[in-house]
Amino acid sequence: MNSLRALIVDDSSVMRKIVERSLRQAGIDLNQVIEAGNGAEALAVLQEQQVDLILCDINMPVMDGLEFIKQLREVEKAKGVLVIMITTEGSEAHVVQALSCGARGYIRKPFTPEQVKTQVIPALAGKS
Amino acid sequence: MNTANELLATSGTRERWTSLMELATREVFQLMLSSELKAATTEADPSQPVTSMVGLAGELCGVLSVRCEEKAAVQMTCKMLGVPAEKVNAEMPDALGEICNMVAGNFKNKITGLGDGCMLSPPTVISGSDYTTYSIADKPALEIRLLFEGMPLVVSLEIHS
User: Fold this and answer.
1) How far, in Å, CA of A9 to CA of A15, rounded?
2) pTM metric for this prediction
3) In chain B, what residues touch A18 (CB-CB under 8 Å)?
4) Confidence of residue B135 (pLDDT cuts 50, 70, 90)
5) Among chain B residues, CA nearest to A61
6) Residues of A with CB below 8 A from B102's CB?
7) What number is the ipTM of this complex?
8) For chain A: N or C, fewer Cβ within 10 A?
9) Is pLDDT at A18 greater than 80 in this prediction?
10) Residue B54 in contact with residue B101, Cβ under 8 Å?
11) Residues near B26 by Cβ (< 8 Å), separated by ≥ 6?
């Protein structure tokens, strides 16, 4: 697996650091990690930069994660990017909505690095 | 679906929800902090407390709070981030807010029907004890008392409707 650029979208800076550490503990080779505090910030990042992987929370101010992945489909630089949701929202309705909007995986908080690995590695393998 | 207060009035629900709240709390500390919480042996309140609160709205309206000593909150932040205490500064309120958010989310996901019909607010964190809260709840809060590395941790759920 090549070295990846990841975008981590969460309104908590502590959670962004935990997600990055979990990705590294899962053995995912990251050459760049970009952080955004909400969906609008993430869309602005993606107008300028390409990434391989997005880990995204749902409940965020300004623009939530579900609205972000809907709008992501219109961003040329983000075509085909792998999106995994990481959120406290564990209901079936949220999971179905996220997957129908283009997310490829769904991790419920609290989570372990092993759960991140189980979701992200197969999704990355399926993408390549 | 019945309101939260109607559900709580049914036999055993209060005890079951309290158990689920404890399970939700223990899971958050096990998975995110690699920490096993112990049962509290006294009713002692945290001194120099920090309190994080998350509002719930929808099928269940109320406030879930996590209260602990500032020293405990710093230690929780260290464990979440994997850094020593001297490197923890502004992250402490953020970390405690996330813990409260995860406990609230994990709790509601354990109750059939609540996951879909209950929204969580962003957390609010208050430092200190010199404040008064006024509540519209007409029943006592569900409360659990545990120990995090020997320091008191109080989780309570005040249900409005």
Assistant:
1) 9
2) 0.92
3) 32, 80-81
4) confident
5) B122
6) 88, 109-110
7) 0.90
8) C
9) yes
10) yes
11) B36, B37, B146
